[in-house]
Amino acid sequence: DPVEVTDARIVMASSYVLDLRRSRNAQVPIGRFPLEILLEIFFCLRDCWNIPVGDWRAPLMGWVVLTHVSHLWRTVSLASPGLW
Questions:
Q1: pLDDT by residue for the chain (84 residues), tens digit each?
Q2: Which letter, b or e, does each residue of 6-45 get, where b requires 16 or more Cβ atoms within 10 Å of its Cβ?
Q3: Does the N-terminal or the C-terminal CB of the chain have fewer CB atoms within 10 Å?
Q4: Containing H/E element for 36?
Q5: How far, CA to CA in Å, does 38 sit from each of 41, 66, 80?
């Protein structure tokens, strides 16, 4: 079925683009930051985030929005139970 073939190609292309984005992120300076320092920054932000919930500058998730920056940041934060 041509539609299934096209859908499979889209899935493969999407996966390839995701791999390229992760590769690019690993090459920028913040992507090469030592994970221990990145984690310390996350702890500081968690403890210091003082914008009231509901303020236009602060999404309801507060400092947790940092977990949406990159795959690495999400992986590091979710693998650190002390943050939660």
A1: 999 999 999 999 999 999 998 888 888 888 788 989 999 998 988 888 766 555 565 555 667 888 888 888 899 999 999 887
A2: eeeeeeeeeeeeeeeeeeebeeeeebeeeeeebbeebeee
A3: N
A4: helix 35-48
A5: 5, 11, 11
The two three-digit tokens of residue 18, written as one number: 């995701």
The burial of 46, by beta-carbon neighbours within 10 Å (0-12 exposed, 13-18 middle, 19 or more buried), is given as middle
Per-residue DSSP letter, 12: H
* Tokens describing residue 69: 């920056």
User: H-helix or E-strand containing 38?
Assistant: helix 35-48
Asked if 30 and 24 count as a contact pair (C-beta separation under 8 A), the reply is no
